[in-house]
Design the sequence.
């Protein structure tokens, strides 16, 4: 098959699709972790340790949402923890869905602060895709699923607790 035909392939099990899925999941997860999660967490820690004003919490309070500090802390934790789970492909669909919720708040915040929401929109759409497509072949989800299948294929005697 020539290069042109390979570029038109839609085979979801092809190596190119698997690697593309892996690269997209890992790179988006790492960027969300660093840009959104890590920086929010640093701001929260500085706020707790030194009483440093947390600009993010002040912005969210200005949006007149209920419990703005709690909302920002939850968003920071979701973007910190769930993005790392997406990177390694652990419970990818659930973590991506949680990130969609948190990043939707980031879109709203950017719009209300009259900032460009493009980056938050792009991350949100990437996580929507991850929520639909899952972790892919190179993920802990895939590894756990294959372990589960191999355990189910064991002879019944080995599964018996009284076997030994």
Sequence:
């Amino acid at each position: 098959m020539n290069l042109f035909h390979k570029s038109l392939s839609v085979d979801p099990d092809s190596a190119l699709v698997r690697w593309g899925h892996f690269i997209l999941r890992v790179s988006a997860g790492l960027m969300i972790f660093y840009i959104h999660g890590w920086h929010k967490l640093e701001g929260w820690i500085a706020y707790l340790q030194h009483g440093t004003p947390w600009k993010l919490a002040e912005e969210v309070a200005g949006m007149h949402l209920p419990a703005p500090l709690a909302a920002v802390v939850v968003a920071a934790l979701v973007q910190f923890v769930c993005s790392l789970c997406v990177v390694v492909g652990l419970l990818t669909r659930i973590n991506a869905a949680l990130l969609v919720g948190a990043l939707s708040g980031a879109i709203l915040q950017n719009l209300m602060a009259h900032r460009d929401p493009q980056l938050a929109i792009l991350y949100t759409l990437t996580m929507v895709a991850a929520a639909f497509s899952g972790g892919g072949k190179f993920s802990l989800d895939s590894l756990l699923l294959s372990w589960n299948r191999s355990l189910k294929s064991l002879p019944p005697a080995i599964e018996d607790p009284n076997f030994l």
